[in-house]
Write a structure and sequence with these properties.
The structure holds two protein chains of two kinds. By secondary structure, chain A is of the alpha/beta class. Chain A contains 16 helices and 20 strands. In chain A, helix 1 runs parallel beside helix 11. Classes of the chains: A alpha/beta, B alpha+beta. Chains A and B meet through helix 3, helix 4 and helix 10 of A and helix 1, helix 2, helix 3 and helix 4 of B. Bound molecules: flavin-adenine dinucleotide (FAD), iron/sulfur cluster (SF4) and FE2/S2 (inorganic) cluster. The site of iron/sulfur cluster has 15 residues of chain B, from helix 6.
Chain lengths: 593, 259
């Protein structure tokens, strides 16, 4: 085992991790640990844009942006956090431009802006041009630009290192540590892909920036590597997860594949049509139609299909129509996504509508933090020195449904805040005590997995999990479907105990890592489903057919899910608690578009 | 219309070929394996046959092998749609991303050969050591260089100025170009096309003031002049970047810009 010591360790080199690193590495000794090369991170897949009320092309202000974010999240947003994000958005975009990001430009040479779902002028009057973009590869440009700046600042990276544990001064997983008692982070344990060696990183501050968990579903826009590692590691160490039942299904995934076609396609004028050619969004959201927030559009699409108005031989998808747009316009604004349609479905978007269906896209929930990105271990106490930002975190700026472009914003605003806060904390404290034999848990898990001579196949369990989640916990949910999903997950968790990997080696053993990632997926899926069962209402991305309306009386609160030992020895269960929603300016109203 | 149950699919004239339902077929992958930990220092070929669907990509077939036949088959991948640059490999002798190469476009009647990209040390199966590649990238100073005070708002840039370097901003650092370059194969010190592409991205950015320094670096004996314009790189680039053209433009800038 090798031991390293850094003031700040950042786990994850996507947008949030690298934005944090740029702040932290200039202040204190910082290392970034990432299971992927930084430029492989899924931030690079983001297409549409990043919103900020620059008002470069029409009147706009951060207060309207805050309102849209709160309303878009179906009022489950913490309004203080949303206000910070909308205010700091402007500087975040300008920061990126000054780092060299090649934004598209207005005729005057300023950053151009375009429309995006749910972003409106003056509290819902009409769609507003707020999204700053670089063609349809805004995320790619953000990831490249941040990496370029990290190269410039000579940030220390540990690439293809998998963090598999986070070390705390007290064991929170039993639920026995009293509220108010100080608990601090002391480092992380990582596995080096190239050699199979274990590394202990001692740190004063740790920032989690490990991204999302889309792979709990089968149909998803997320990368194979988005297995919710950071969330699962926190959960195992007794830290709660917030609002995990809210998962966003993006309306326009390529049918059957899940590959995303950005909302920018509709922002640029694309129209959704059912099998009869009808522009059905006119019925569901008469004012902003195809540009209604994602949860509404996704449900409307699924409903068209369910009621027999789908397109295609099996009537199991709807169509995204761009054929009325000028090919030159498509080439200038949507080159990559139209290329996806050509490459993967053999469809020419100039002349043919593209088959689309909702795809699992974004985890609104995650590790709870306050507005300074400090991780909460209950409703009020923070874990000292532990921070989280980006999709792994829930600060809650997205509430029950994230607006398009608000995640690229989130990773920049809260990534920056995390870097600053982690460095400031590390500069003032001493090293926290390491637990005895800090790598024991990770070493044990790996040995167990590698030494199991024969057993269940990882891919079978993963497929069964993903299929059950797609079937039972997707756009439409019921008590019955969720109960089924929970039973499936519990059964799969049992079988997971006898999983074996074929590759027994140490070098580049991706077989082993896929097995460990499956463990994360199973535990997170359980949290999603348990939360969804308990939330007997419909709000944002969570829609219960048996409880189709929002119930503010019972459920205007965040879910806090804790993994605790169950009465059966050696097993765990999810216990739910609640956290109040922070409201400042806006009282909940009915959400109409 | 009543469905004719036992008619072979697509045979009945009234049944239009179903767009959604794609036929399955068997495909054989002939893969270059290497694992010094168990199989010694020699690389060898191994063939696997799997059943694939019409829209499956090489990556899907490789996953099938890994997940159902041989868990030790090792390759990098993440996004699965051509955006992260993890899975460049030599497929039927050409560098491509496994996640963008559709099986049906590769003549599945013959075995499809899969090898690691060339010119970088092979670590295991299709995994190569990417460090030399990223080291060249870092050397050309791939970041915006400016002088003077930061503006309080954005720097202005016209749409035309922005367009000037648009093509080279698309690079995902997959190394398909560099590892298809005969000059790089014989001389690993050569910067290689990808580094030059990323230098181009800044040299032609109207906001950048580091052009002279970058041109000096690339004027080195391992720099742009080693390029023999074989166009392999342009053909290999999964992002459709005109790599050779970018290299030519950098060469020209060296001659015309005084430094
Ligand atoms: C196709 C697509 C399009 C999108 N378009 C938009 C858009 O237009 N606008 C918008 O605002 N949002 C968009 N989003 C959402 C947004 O891109 C993501 O939410 C955001 O980029 C997440 O950034 P992140 O830094 O939190 O995580 P990521 O970029 O996913 O990075 C995660 C990092 O964590 C590392 N990591 C993970 N686990 C471990 C571990 N165990 N050990 C070490 N390292 C680990 C990974 O290596 C990686 O570096 C889109 C998402 C997708 C999938
Ligand atoms: S120029 Fe093209 S082939 Fe070369 S690294 Fe960039 S994306 Fe890959
Ligand atoms: S897996 Fe990302 S480019 Fe192929």
């Amino acid at each position: 085992m090798q031991t390293h010591q850094y003031d700040v360790v950042i786990v994850g080199a996507g947008g949030a991790g690298m934005r944090a690193a740029l702040e932290s590495s200039g202040r204190v000794r910082t290392a970034v640990i990432s299971k992927l090369y930084p430029t492989r991170s899924h931030t690079g897949a983001a297409q549409g844009g990043m919103c900020a009320a620059l008002a470069n092309v029409e009147e706009d202000n951060w207060e309207w942006h805050t309102f849209d974010t709160v309303k878009g999240g179906d009022y489950l947003v913490d309004q203080d956090a949303a206000e910070i994000m909308a205010k700091e958005a402007i500087e975040a975009v300008l920061d990126l431009e000054r780092m060299g990001l090649p934004f598209n430009r207005t005729p005057e040479g300023k950053i151009d802006q375009r429309r995006f779902g749910g972003h409106t002028r003056n509290h819902g009057e009409a769609a507003v041009r707020r999204s700053c973009y670089a063609a349809d590869r805004t995320g790619h440009m953000i990831l490249q630009t941040l990496y370029q700046q990290c190269v410039k600042q000579d940030v220390s990276f540990f690439n293809e290192f998998y963090v598999l544990d986070v070390l705390l001064s007290s064991d929170l997983s039993t639920g026995e540590v009293a509220d108010g008692e100080p608990v601090a982070v002391s480092g992380v344990v990582a596995y080096e892909l190239a050699t199979g060696e274990i590394h202990l990183f001692r740190a004063k501050s740790v920032v989690f920036a490990t991204g999302g968990a889309g792979k709990i579903y089968k149909t998803t826009s997320n990368a194979h590597t988005l297995t919710g590692d950071g969330m699962a590691l926190a959960l195992r160490r007794g830290i709660p997860l917030e609002d995990m039942e809210f998962f966003q299904f993006h309306p326009t995934g390529l049918a059957g594949l899940g590959i995303l076609l950005s909302e920018a396609a509709r922002g640029e004028g694309g129209i959704l049509r059912n099998g009869d050619g009808e522009r059905f969004m006119e019925r569901y959201a008469p004012t902003i139609k195809d540009l209604a927030p994602r949860d509404i559009v996704a449900r409307s699409m699924a409903n068209e299909v369910r009621e027999g108005r789908g397109a295609g031989p099996n009537k199991d998808y709807v169509l995204l129509d761009l054929t009325h747009l000028e090919p030159a316009h498509i080439d200038a604004k949507l080159p990559d996504i139209t290329e996806f349609a050509r490459t993967y479905l053999g469809i020419e978007p100039y002349t043919e509508p593209v088959p689309v269906y909702p795809t699992a896209h974004y985890a609104m929930g995650g590790i709870p933090t306050n507005i300074n990105t400090e991780v909460l271990r209950n409703n009020t106490d923070v874990v000292q020195g532990l921070y989280a930002a980006g999709e792994v975190a829930c600060v809650s700026v997205h509430g029950s449904n994230r607006l398009g472009t608000n995640s690229l914003l989130d990773i920049n605003v809260f990534g920056k805040r995390a870097g600053i806060a982690a460095a400031a904390y590390a500069a003032t404290v001493d090293w926290a005590e390491l637990p005895e034999d800090p790598a024991a848990y990770v070493v044990g898990e790996i040995e167990r997995m590698r030494d199991q001579p024969v057993g269940e196949r990882v891919s079978d369990l993963r497929r069964e999990l993903q299929e059950s989640m797609d079937l039972n916990a997707q756009v439409f949910r019921t008590q019955e479907s969720l109960t089924q999903a929970l039973a499936d997950i519990k059964h799969l968790k049992k079988r997971y105990g006898s999983v074996s990997v074929q590759d027994k080696g140490r070098r580049y053993n991706t077989d082993l890592l896929e097995a460990l990632e499956l463990g994360f997926l199973l535990e997170l899926a359980e949290v999603v489903v348990v939360g969804a069962l308990a939330r007997e209402e419909s709000r944002g991305g969570h829609f219960r057919e048996d409880f189709p309306t929002r119930d503010d009386e019972r459920f205007m609160m965040h879910t806090m899910a804790y993994q605790r030992p169950s009465s059966t020895a050696g097993e765990t269960e999810i216990r739910l608690d609640h956290k109040p929603v922070i409201m400042t300016r806006y009282q909940p109203m009915e959400r109409k578009y | 219309m009543t469905a004719v149950v036992d008619a072979p699919s697509g045979a009945s004239p009234e049944t239009a070929p179903e767009v959604g339902a794609v036929p399955t077929f068997d495909v054989t992958l002939r893969i270059r394996r290497y694992n010094p930990e168990v199989a010694g220092d020699e690389a060898y070929w191994e063939e696997f046959t799997v059943t694939a669907h019409g829209t499956d990509r090489v990556l899907d077939a490789m996953h099938k092998i890994k997940w159902e036949l041989d868990g030790s088959l090792t390759f990098r991948r993440s996004c699965a749609h051509g955006i992260c640059g993890s899975d460049a490999m030599r497929i039927n002798g050409r560098n491509r991303l496994a996640c963008k190469a559709l099986l049906k476009d590769l003549n599945p009647d013959k075995p499809i050969t899969i090898e690691p990209i060339k010119g970088l040390p092979v670590e295991k199966d299709l995994v190569v050591d990417m460090e030399p590649f990223f080291a060249s990238y870092r050397e050309i100073m791939p970041f915006l260089i400016t002088s003077g005070n930061e503006p309080s708002k954005e720097r202005l840039q016209s749409a035309e100025q922005r367009e000037r370097y648009d093509d080279t901003t698309k690079c995902i650092l997959c190394a398909a170009c560099t590892s298809s370059c005969p000059v790089f194969w014989t001389d690993g010190q050569y910067f290689g096309p990808a580094a030059i592409v990323n230098a181009h991205r800044f040299i032609f950015d109207s906001r950048d003031e580091g052009g002279t320094q970058r041109l000096e670096i690339l004027n080195d004996k391992e720099g742009v002049w080693r390029c023999r314009t074989t166009f392999n790189c342009t053909e290999a680039c999964p992002r459709g970047i005109e790599v050779t053209k970018a290299i030519q433009e950098v060469k020209r800038a060296m001659i015309t810009r005084a430094f």
